[in-house]
Specification:
This protein is α+β, with helices and mostly antiparallel strands and 101 residues long. It is 26% helix and 29% strand. The longest helix is centred in the C-terminal third of the chain and has 16 residues.
């Protein structure tokens, strides 16, 4: 089982959700307003100097191959980005324990 954590400019969130739905990812949470200092692109602090903000999407994926497919799909989405502000940052890590029963 894997956790995949994504953060992106709020303008990209809908595209990211559509991608996850097309991959049949059934379990994820969205954190709507995330302030961020980005490695690439503009900072997003929702101020006059650094307008806008990011959103985060966190997924719990039981199938490791599906998680790898998600990461690959995000890489493909990033190749289509108009500029660095549209890039999705994603990280994946293993889950040692999961309780949902």
């Amino acid at each position: 089982m894997k956790i995949v954590y994504c953060t992106c400019n709020v303008s990209v969130l809908e595209s990211l959700q559509e991608l996850m739905n097309s991959l049949e990812i059934k379990s994820y949470q969205i954190i709507d307003r995330v302030l961020a200092k980005n490695m690439l692109g503009d900072n997003r602090f929702d101020t006059a100097v650094w307008p806008s903000y990011n959103s985060s999407l966190i997924m719990q994926i039981t199938d490791d191959q599906k998680a790898a497919q998600v990461m690959n799909a995000i890489r493909q989405l990033n190749k289509k980005a108009f500029n660095q502000n549209e890039l999705v940052i994603a990280a994946m890590w293993p889950v040692d324990d999961f309780c949902f029963d």
